[in-house]
Amino acid sequence: MTQPRYIGTDRETGKAVLVVPEPFGLLDHIADVAQLESCAAFLAVMDAVLESGHDNSADALAAFLRPAVEMLRDVAAIAVKHVDGAA
């Protein structure tokens, strides 16, 4: 059994929708897209901070390190899954 994955937010309740999708099924694809969209949004925030022209302290930049590593791990896992699945 795999871990629950986020696929979006319920419009009526505002709660996160989590599923345990079948590998390479529709819900798995939706979860991959949601994960990649989240990573793209986080990357945009990181880019805006770095490009802001402010003198960012090492501590402020270090706050982005853990989420950036997690984001890279998530994107790499999606890429490996699709490369392995295509073989």
Task: Give a written overview of the molecule.
This protein is mainly α. The protein has one domain. 61% of the residues lie in helices and 10% in strands. The chain contains three helices and two strands; from the N terminus they run ββααα. The protein has a two-stranded antiparallel sheet with strand order 1-2. The protein is globular and about 45 Å long.
Structural class: mainly alpha
Strand order of the largest sheet: 1-2
Task: Let me know the number of strands.
Answer: 2
Gross morphology is globular
β-strand amount: 5-15%
Helix percentage range: 55-70%
Task: For the record, give the distance between the C-alpha atoms at the N and C termini, rounded to a whole number.
Answer: 23 Å
The overall pLDDT average reads: 89
Spans of at least 5 consecutive residues whose pLDDT stays below 50 are: none
Number of folding domains? Answer: 1
Report the radius of gyration as a whole number of Å: 16 Å
Please summarize the sheet with the most strands.
2 strands, antiparallel
Q: How many helical stretches? A: 3
Secondary-structure element string: EEHHH
